[in-house]
Design goal:
The complex is a heterodimer of chains A (about 160) and B (about 750). Chain A has 5 helices and 5 strands, in the order ββαβββαααα. Chain A has helices at about 25-30, 85-95, 105-115, 125-130, 140-155, and strands at about 5-10, 10-15, 50, 55, 70-75. A 5-stranded mixed beta sheet of chain A has the order 2-1-5-3-4. The relative contact order of chain A is 0.16. Chain B is an alpha+beta fold and about 750 residues long. Chain B folds into 3 domains: about 10-200, Aldehyde Oxidoreductase, domain 4 (2-Layer Sandwich), CATH 3.30.365; about 225-295 and about 345-435, 2-Layer Sandwich (Aldehyde Oxidoreductase, domain 4); about 445-739, 2-Layer Sandwich (Aldehyde Oxidoreductase, domain 4), CATH 3.30.365.10. In chain B, helix 4 (about 80-95) runs parallel beside helix 5, helix 14 packs parallel to helix 18 (about 710-725) and helix 17 crosses helix 18. Classes of the chains: A alpha+beta (about 160), B alpha+beta (about 750). At the A-B interface, helix 1, helix 2, helix 3, helix 4 and helix 5 of A face helix 7, helix 9 and helix 17 of B. The structure holds FE2/S2 (inorganic) cluster (FES) (2 copies). One FE2/S2 (inorganic) cluster binds near residues 44, 45 and 47 of chain A. Chain A: GO terms for molecular function: 2 iron, 2 sulfur cluster binding; metal ion binding; oxidoreductase activity. Chain A: Keywords: 2Fe-2S, Iron, Iron-sulfur, Metal-binding.
Chain lengths: ~160, ~750
C-alpha cells in the first residue's frame, strides 16, 4: 500500500493506506482521532469537518491522495499546548451549545474557519458559514450565540 | 422570565448560599465553623416504578474507596443531560459537592433494569429513585457514624463527604464509616428528604461537564470506542423490506479490495469483516453489485397513501366516550376538519454503530440502545442464548429521538462476533441505511368534529385517529430486531407493539361535556416505531389547529377561547404566561402569530407555544421568525438542561412541520439522504425564547417531549393568521400555501 505524509495538528504522520481512502477514515481509523465524526459520508452534514490550511472543509469525501502538503487541523489540534481551549471551544462550553454533541466537531471547526476569515461576523454571516452543518438536537440558537461570544472574546471586547 | 445563570462556579456558590444567609460557605473545609445543614422532611408519597425491581440503596449508589459516591442509573445519555440531573439530586440529598458524585449509566449486571430511556421518564423514574436512595443512605451513614464515634446523631454533621462531630475534631468520611461494605437496606417510606428551600443544586442552571469534554473531542461516543485488535464490518441490507437473497458472489472480493477478513452469510443476512473501516465500506458496495435479491412488493402510491391507510384500518376502538355527542345544540352547526401527517424520520446525525466481542463464553455488546436490558432479552432470544451470557454496556450515541437503529446495529455486531470470536467487531451503519431502514414515526390521520353552544363553548367533540404502532422496541419478541427477519430461519413480528401511543393526547385537555375518541389502527407499509412524543405531535397539531378554527367560528380570541375551556390553574398559567411574552409583538404586513397549548399525555408537563411567521403570498414562502414557549414541568432539576431540551424540541418539531416527509416510490424508500430528506438548517432557525414556571412542590416531569406537540399547531395557526390559508396536511410548504 502506498505511503502518504500528512501534516496534522503540527505533526508529520506517515500513513500506509489505499489512495482512495477519505481523509475522515484516515483521521479516525489510522490516527485514532475522535474529533471528526462520521455523519453521512456525502458532504451533506458537516460532522466530519476539519481545517485544511485554515479553512473548514468536510473530510468524508476527500481522498488522502488529494491532500498533498496541506496543513490539517482537527478539533484535537485547536487547544494550545498547555491545554487552554481555543476561544470557540470555550464559547461553546460557556453557552452550553450542545445536547448530544455529535455535531459539535463540525460546528466548532466551521466557526473557527469563519472567524479565521472574518473575525466579526454578523448574524447572517454566521448562519451562512454554518449552513452545511446539521444539528438534529437543534441547539442552533445556542450555537449562533457561541460564535458571537467567541468573536467578542477573540477581539478582546 | 428566568435568567440563565452563566456564571463561574465561584459566583454560583456565592449566589446560591446555603440555607442560612450570610453564613460562610464550605466552612467545614476550613475547620472553623460548622455549616448549617438543611432540615429534612419526611416524604410519604409514591416511590417510582424503577424502584420496584431495585428497592435497595446499593442498587442505586455505592460509596467508593476514596469516600466519594458512585450513583447507578439504568438510563442512557442521549444528549438530554440525564447524567447531570442525576448528579445534582444525589449531591443534594447527600450534601456533597457535585464533583464528589460519579454517575454510572446503564450496564447489564451493574445498574438497575430501568427498561427504556424514553417517554420523558428519566427524571421521574431514575433521578427520583436516586433521590430516595441517597436520602436513605444519608440517614444510615449518620446512624452508623454515630455508633462508631459514640456521639449522638444530633451532635453530628454530614457535609461534603464527611460526618463530623460538632463538638470535637472527630470525623469520618463515608468510606471510613462503611469500611468496605455498602448500604444494603430497602428504601422505605417515610424517606427523610432535604427541605427544598435548602437546595444547593436542584432547580439551578448547572453546566453539563460533558460539554467541555465534547468541545475537546474527549467525550467518547459508541462510534469512538477502540479496542486492541478491533476489526470493522458492514452489513449489506436487503434490496427491500421483503427481499430475499438469491445469491451473493464474493469470489472476487479479496482481489478487488484489500483487508478482507470474512464474509458472513446467514439466510438473507450478509455481513463483511475487514481490517480497516473504509475497506468495509468498499466491500459492502462490492457485494451489493455482486448480489441478487428477490424484489420486494411495491409500496402504495405516495399520493394516495392516506386513502390506502384508511382502507387497511381495523374496526375502530373506542378510547373515550363521555356524555352524548349526538346532542347537537339548537341552531348551531357542527364543524369538521381532517388532518394528515406523513411518515417522519428520527434523523440522528450519527448513524447507528454497534460493537460486539464473543470471548467463547460471554457475548459482550456495546450499544447506544435506549434499553439495554430489553435489547439483551431480544438478542438472547434471537441467538437462542441465555440472557446471562450476554453482557451489554450502554455507550452514548448521537441524539436519536426515539427507537431508531441502535439496537439493529448492536444485533449486526452480535451476529458477526459469534462467527468471528475473540475480536471486537465494530459495525457502522451508512447514512443510506440509516435513512431507509429507520423505523419511522408513523403517518397518521385525524378527523375532528365539534359543535358549539349558544355561548360559544364547545358542546360536543369527536376525534377519529388513524395510526400504526408507536413502539416496536426490542423486548422478548426477537423479531423486533431487524436481522431476525432475514436470518436463515426468519421469524416475523408477533405483536403490534405500543398502539396506544397513537391516541396519546387525542382527547382534548379541555372541559367538554360530550366527548368521543375512536382509534383506527392499521398495519402500514413502512417500518415504524417510537418517534419523540409519539402520536401527540399529530393529535395536538390537529386539535390545536381546530381550536383556532372553532374560536373563529365562535368569534372569540384564540387564547381566551382556550381559557374558557380550562379549569386547571397550571394550564391557565402557561397560557397567561405566553400571552404576556408575546404582548406588544409588532406584526408587519404578511406576518402572523399563532398559539397552541397541550399538557403532555394529559397528565404530565404543561406547555404553550407561540410562533411568528411571515408568508409571501406570491411565492408561498414561509419564514419562521420567532418561537416562544411557556412551560411547567413541575419541579425543575436542571434549569439550563430543561431549557435546552425545550428549545431543541421546538426547533425539531418546527422542522417536522415545515420540511419533513419520508418519500417512497415503487418498492423503494426514496428519501435516502439529507438532500432528499431536508431538515432545518441554520437559515431556517428562528429566534427562540423559553419561560419556565418552576413549581418545586409538584412532581418533577421530564421535558424532552413537551414542547413538540404544541409547536406544530402554533406554526399552522400563525400561517393562517399571516395569510388566511389553513394547511391541514403536514408538512406546511409553499406549494400548499399556493394550492
Ligand atoms: S460526514 Fe462528512 S459531511 Fe457528513
Ligand atoms: S447536539 Fe446533537 S446533533 Fe447537534
Amino acid at each position: 500500500m502506498p505511503k502518504f505524509t500528512l501534516h496534522i495538528n503540527g505533526l508529520q504522520k506517515v500513513i500506509d493506506t489505499e489512495p482512495d481512502t477519505p481523509l475522515l477514515y484516515v483521521l479516525r481509523d489510522n490516527l485514532e482521532l475522535n474529533g471528526p465524526k462520521f455523519g453521512c459520508g456525502l458532504s451533506q452534514c458537516g460532522a466530519c469537518m476539519v481545517l485544511v490550511d485554515g479553512s473548514a472543509v468536510t473530510s468524508c469525501m476527500r481522498p488522502i491522495a488529494s491532500i498533498g502538503d496541506s496543513k490539517i487541523t482537527t478539533l484535537e489540534g485547536l487547544a494550545s499546548e498547555n491545554g487552554k481551549l481555543h476561544a470557540v471551544q470555550d464559547a461553546f462550553n460557556q453557552e452550553q451549545a450542545a445536547q448530544c454533541g455529535y455535531c459539535l466537531n463540525g460546528m466548532v471547526m466551521a466557526s473557527v474557519g469563519l472567524l479565521n476569515d472574518n473575525p466579526n461576523p454578523n448574524d447572517s454571516e454566521i448562519r451562512d458559514a454554518l449552513q452545511l452543518n446539521l444539528c438534529r438536537c437543534s441547539a442552533h440558537t445556542r450555537i449562533i450565540q457561541a460564535v458571537k461570544t467567541a468573536s467578542k472574546n477573540l477581539s478582546g471586547k | 422570565m428566568i435568567e440563565l445563570s452563566k456564571t463561574s462556579r465561584r459566583k454560583f456558590l456565592r449566589d446560591i448560599g446555603y440555607i442560612s444567609v450570610g453564613f460562610p460557605l464550605l466552612s467545614s473545609c476550613f475547620g472553623e465553623q460548622d455549616p448549617v445543614v438543611a432540615a429534612r422532611v419526611n416524604y410519604e408519597g409514591d416511590l417510582p416504578g424503577s424502584m420496584r425491581n431495585a428497592s435497595k440503596v446499593n442498587a442505586w449508589l455505592h460509596v467508593l474507596e476514596d469516600g466519594r459516591v458512585m450513583v447507578f442509573s439504568g438510563k442512557v445519555e442521549l444528549g438530554q443531560g440525564i447524567r447531570t440531573a442525576i448528579r445534582q439530586v444525589a449531591a443534594e440529598e447527600l450534601d456533597l459537592e457535585l464533583d464528589q458524585v460519579e454517575v454510572h449509566l446503564a450496564e447489564t449486571g451493574v445498574t438497575p433494569d430501568e427498561g427504556y430511556t424514553a417517554g420523558s421518564s428519566s427524571v421521574p423514574n431514575s433521578a427520583m429513585s436516586v433521590r430516595y436512595a441517597a436520602a436513605t443512605a444519608r440517614q444510615k451513614l449518620l446512624e452508623l457514624a454515630s455508633a462508631k464515634l459514640n456521639i449522638a446523631e444530633e451532635d453530628l454533621i454530614l457535609y461534603n463527604g464527611k460526618v463530623k462531630s460538632k463538638k470535637s475534631n472527630q470525623s469520618l468520611n463515608f468510606a471510613e464509616i462503611l469500611e468496605g461494605a455498602q448500604i444494603d437496606m430497602e428504601v422505605t417510606k417515610p424517606v427523610p428528604l432535604k427541605i427544598k428551600s435548602g437546595y444547593r443544586y436542584v432547580g439551578k442552571a448547572i453546566p453539563r461537564k460533558d460539554i467541555e469534554k465534547m468541545v475537546r473531542g474527549e467525550e467518547v461516543y459508541i462510534q469512538d470506542l477502540r479496542f486492541p485488535g478491533m476489526v470493522h464490518a458492514r452489513v449489506l441490507r436487503p434490496a427491500g423490506y421483503q427481499s430475499k437473497l438469491v445469491k451473493v458472489d464474493d469470489s472476487g472480493l479479496s482481489t478487488a479490495i484489500s483487508g478482507i477478513i470474512k464474509t458472513v452469510v446467514n439466510g438473507s443476512f450478509v455481513g463483511v469483516i475487514t481490517d480497516r473501516e473504509y475497506q468495509a465500506v468498499k466491500a459492502e458496495a462490492y457485494l451489493r453489485k455482486h448480489s441478487e435479491w428477490t424484489p420486494s412488493p411495491s409500496f402504495p402510491k405516495q399520493e394516495t397513501l392516506f386513502a390506502h391507510l384508511k382502507s387497511i384500518a381495523e374496526k375502530p376502538q373506542s378510547i373515550r366516550n363521555e356524555g352524548d355527542i349526538t346532542t347537537t345544540p339548537n341552531g348551531t352547526d357542527t364543524f369538521k376538519a381532517s388532518y394528515t401527517k406523513p411518515y417522519l424520520k428520527h434523523g440522528s446525525i450519527g448513524p447507528a454503530c454497534g460493537i460486539a466481542m464473543y470471548d467463547g463464553e460471554i457475548l459482550h455488546i456495546w450499544s447506544h440502545s435506549q434499553g439495554i436490558y430489553p435489547m439483551r432479552r431480544a438478542i438472547a432470544a434471537m441467538l437462542k442464548m441465555e440472557q446471562e451470557k450476554l453482557h451489554v454496556i450502554a455507550v452514548p450515541g448521537a441524539g436519536c429521538f426515539g427507537h431508531s437503529t441502535a439496537d439493529d446495529a448492536a444485533t449486526d455486531a452480535a451476529i458477526l462476533a459469534l462467527s468471528y470470536p475473540g475480536k471486537h467487531i465494530r459495525v457502522q451503519w451508512s447514512r443510506h441505511d440509516e435513512h431507509t431502514w429507520d423505523p419511522y414515526g408513523t403517518a397518521m390521520i385525524m378527523e375532528l368534529e365539534a359543535s358549539l353552544d349558544a355561548n360559544g363553548k364547545i358542546k360536543t367533540w369527536k376525534t377519529d385517529v388513524w395510526t400504526d404502532s408507536h413502539s416496536m422496541r426490542p423486548d422478548n419478541d426477537p423479531a423486533t430486531l431487524l436481522d431476525t427477519r432475514y436470518l436463515e430461519n426468519p421469524v416475523q413480528l408477533k405483536g403490534r407493539g405500543y398502539l396506544g401511543g397513537g391516541h396519546r393526547n387525542a382527547d382534548p385537555y379541555y372541559s367538554i361535556p360530550n366527548m368521543q375518541v375512536n382509534a383506527h389502527f392499521f398495519n402500514g407499509p413502512l417500518r415504524v416505531s417510537s418517534l419523540r412524543s409519539l402520536g401527540s405531535y399529530t393529535t395536538i397539531f390537529s386539535i390545536e389547529s381546530f381550536m383556532d378554527e372553532l374560536a373563529e367560528k365562535a368569534g372569540k380570541d384564540p387564547l381566551e377561547f382556550r381559557l374558557a375551556h380550562l379549569e386547571d390553574a397550571r394550564a391557565i398559567a402557561v397560557i397567561n404566561k405566553i400571552q404576556e411574552m408575546c404582548n406588544g409583538e409588532k406584526l408587519e404586513e404578511g406576518e402572523g402569530i399563532g398559539y397552541a397549548f397541550s399538557r403532555y399525555k394529559n397528565t404530565t408537563a404543561y406547555a404553550t407555544a407561540a410562533a411568528k411567521v411571515s408568508v409571501d403570498r406570491a411565492s408561498g414562502t414561509i419564514k419562521l421568525l420567532k418561537m416562544w414557549a411557556a412551560v411547567d414541568v413541575g419541579e425543575i432539576i436542571n434549569l439550563d438542561g430543561i431549557i435546552n431540551q425545550i428549545e431543541g424540541g421546538m426547533l425539531q418539531a418546527a422542522s417536522w412541520t415545515l420540511k419533513e416527509e419520508v418519500t417512497f416510490e415503487d418498492n423503494k424508500i426514496t428519501s435516502s439522504d439529507w438532500r432528499k430528506y431536508p431538515v432545518f438548517r441554520f437559515s431556517d432557525i428562528p429566534e427562540v425564547e423559553v419561560a419556565m414556571i418552576d413549581r418545586p412542590n409538584e412532581a418533577a416531569e421530564g421535558g424532552g417531549e413537551v414542547s413538540m406537540p404544541p409547536t406544530g399547531a402554533a406554526i399552522a395557526n400563525a400561517v393562517y393568521n399571516a395569510c388566511g390559508k389553513r394547511v391541514y396536511d403536514l408538512p406546511i410548504t409553499a406549494e400548499k400555501i399556493l394550492g
